[in-house]
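User: Just a sanity check before I run the rest of the batch. Below are the structure tokens for the first item. I only need the designed sequence back.
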């Protein structure tokens, strides 16, 4: 019994070990991580529009299709660009961010006017880009020295994932012997009046703001998008040149100037973008908004992912172990709904769950546990089926045995019931009835003992018995059964003593004889030997 009870424990331990062994592959698999990212994108799209002070603090000035159509092809004439910046300067903005690469010299007069406009602004962030990360000799595309003098320079790079969607930004990018902070981070620094960012292994600190961008992740920060394109207030740069914009709209605001015209190449796909992608200025605005609102999205981390996966394994395995049918379906469906609901709630509180990994863990754990339970139950079912067949055979055999003494009881009982039956014969018949009824009682007791032994509740009563005498007595009863098919039973039993339970051994031998008779054709011989 201990061995039998240990088998399900062994099987369940085995499938739990199999599931645990697959956890690293399921959690940190590139494809599954991409599925997790898509799930979280869906949650972000389903989230209601975000409202915060930073949304109104940032103002986008777009060099759009309208501007290009009226004031010339792109890149815009530097004199026009300077004119627009002069209008912005009249409104005393807090910070002006130029999401433009102004690295090449042009007309001297126009460059001088642009430099003058830039220096009239209270605080400016100019864009820089690393020409090629793959080149053996990468080069930074930097703004003109006369523009950058005394102004902040920051990189404009995004950090697209494998599927091309921009979900994060590199707060720090380095190469060619230089390092620059992200455009959005530098704008937030100037807007808050903070000193240079302070780096630690786990974060980047900007004044009172602690940004969870670890050194191991390359200072990557997830962008908490406020919404699709158009979430931030926006003006057309052409409207500045038209003179139709009141400069007061820029007061104490972070103003981002950049190109949004279609075909400009400054559009990238994001979790919330439409078919044409999101403009670069909108992405930078979302970076600023994430920092100023402290609306950071933090991944669960290795320990959290592994712990959550273990919890899911426990829930799924327990459900498969203890529940069956509709209740199991409802329980596993409930676990799935719980995981998705946790994803919605966690994003609200700034945490990103690996929903794809959790879904894979739940599915694999349920499947492996289900296969293990099915294998064990199939084995139990096969064992029980065999037991039922054996039981049916024993019942058939005992029914067969019971029929043998019944005629010897019924016939004499009818004879002695007659009034004219001699007393001497009556006594003889009564003895025969007593003998056969006693044999019938022993037969039933033997059957019950066999069942108890099969159940493990009765031990064998071993004694020394004469095997030849026992077999002859049993064979004699078998001949009565064989006579109906005109089958002859021949025996060749040695005269030896054996240690056995006489009743059970007799029962077993009789079963063998009756089986031989049952499955043999008529007018044949059944041989019994030992």
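Assistant: Here's the designed sequence for the first item:
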């Amino acid at each position: 019994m201990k061995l039998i009870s240990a088998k399900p424990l062994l099987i369940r331990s085995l499938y739990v070990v199999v599931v645990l062994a697959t956890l690293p592959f399921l959690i940190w698999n590139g494809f599954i991580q991409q599925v997790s990212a898509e799930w979280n994108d869906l949650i972000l799209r389903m989230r209601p529009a975000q409202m915060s002070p930073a949304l109104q603090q940032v103002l986008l000035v777009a060099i759009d299709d309208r501007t290009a159509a009226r004031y010339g092809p792109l890149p815009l004439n530097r004199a026009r660009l300077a004119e627009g910046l002069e209008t912005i300067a009249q409104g005393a903005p807090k910070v002006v961010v130029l999401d433009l690469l102004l690295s090449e010299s042009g007309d001297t007069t126009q460059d001088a006017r642009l430099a003058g406009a830039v220096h009239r602004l209270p605080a400016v962030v100019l864009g820089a880009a690393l020409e090629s990360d793959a080149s053996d000799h990468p080069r930074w595309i930097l703004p003109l020295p006369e523009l950058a003098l005394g102004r902040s320079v920051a990189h404009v790079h995004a950090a697209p994932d494998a599927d091309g969607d921009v979900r994060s930004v590199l707060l720090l990018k380095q190469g060619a012997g230089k390092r620059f902070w992200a455009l959005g981070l530098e704008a937030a620094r100037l807007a808050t009046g903070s000193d240079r960012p302070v780096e630690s292994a786990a974060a980047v600190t900007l004044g009172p703001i602690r940004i969870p961008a670890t050194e191991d992740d390359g200072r990557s920060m997830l962008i908490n998008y406020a919404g699709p394109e158009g979430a931030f207030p926006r003006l057309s740069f052409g409207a500045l040149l038209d003179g139709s914009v009141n400069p007061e709209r820029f007061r104490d605001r972070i103003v981002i100037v950049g190109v949004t015209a279609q075909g400009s190449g400054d559009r990238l796909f994001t979790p919330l973008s439409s078919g044409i992608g999101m403009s670069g200025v909108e992405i930078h605005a979302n970076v600023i908004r994430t920092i100023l609102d402290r609306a950071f999205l933090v991944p669960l981390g290795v320990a959290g992912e592994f712990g959550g996966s273990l919890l899911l394994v426990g829930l799924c395995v327990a459900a498969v172990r203890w529940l069956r049918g509709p209740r199991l379906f409802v329980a596993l469906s409930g676990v799935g709904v719980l995981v998705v609901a946790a994803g919605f709630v966690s994003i609200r509180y700034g945490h990103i769950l690996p929903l794809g990994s959790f879904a894979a863990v739940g599915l694999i754990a349920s499947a492996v546990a289900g296969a293990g339970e099915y294998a064990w139950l199939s084995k139990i079912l096969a064992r029980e089926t065999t037991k039922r067949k054996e039981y049916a055979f024993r019942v058939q055999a005992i029914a067969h045995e019971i029929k043998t003494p019944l005629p010897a009881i019924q016939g004499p009982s009818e004879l002695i019931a007659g009034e004219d039956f001699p007393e001497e014969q009556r006594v003889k018949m009564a003895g025969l009835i007593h003998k056969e009824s006693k044999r019938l009682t022993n037969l039933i007791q033997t059957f019950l003992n066999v069942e108890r032994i099969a159940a493990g509740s009765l031990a064998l009563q071993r004694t020394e018995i004469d095997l030849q005498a026992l077999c002859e007595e049993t064979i004699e009863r078998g001949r009565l059964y064989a006579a109906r098919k005109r089958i002859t039973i021949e025996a060749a039993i040695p005269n030896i003593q054996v240690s056995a339970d006489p009743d059970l051994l007799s029962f077993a031998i009789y079963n063998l004889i009756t089986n031989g008779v049952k499955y043999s054709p008529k007018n044949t011989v059944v041989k019994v030997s030992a």
